[in-house]
Amino acid sequence: MAHAVHLDDEEIKLFGKRGTSVAHCPASNNMLSSGLCDVLRLIKNRIKVGLGTDVSGGNSMSIQDAMLRALDVSHHLEFVKKQEIKGSGRLEVQDQAYQPLNYKQAIFLATLGGAEALALSN
């Protein structure tokens, strides 16, 4: 499955139960303004995730660019999970446990994550 930016909790559980894999294509999601994929949420629900470039919707075939964009998306999600309390200037943390992707995880998504998603990990 590509993109997976609009999955609800039940769909995510079903994906995990059925062994569905997801191709995270952050560049094309950005270019199409289609949404932000919460990769960590997918992984926590036993969904295998690999990184893709989807050059037909994006602007680069570079997997290194896809890694950087995956990190950006994860940091954007961290920001989105904090909502400004109207008029107060304070931030209300909705998900205190959320930690954005790190470089090690981005490299995994671009290499072994993709291999696992395609059942090629051995």
From TrEMBL:
- The keyword Metal-binding belongs to this UniProt entry's keyword annotation: yes
* Annotated protein name in UniProt: Guanine deaminase
Where in the numbering of this chain does the Amidohydrolase-related domain appear? 1-121
State any GO CC term: cytosol
Cofactor(s), names only, from the UniProt record = Zn(2+)
The record lists the organism as Bactrocera latifrons (Malaysian fruit fly)
Keywords of this entry: Hydrolase, Metal-binding, Zinc
- Write one Gene Ontology MF term: guanine deaminase activity
Pfam families in the record: Amidohydro_1
GO biological processes: guanine metabolic process
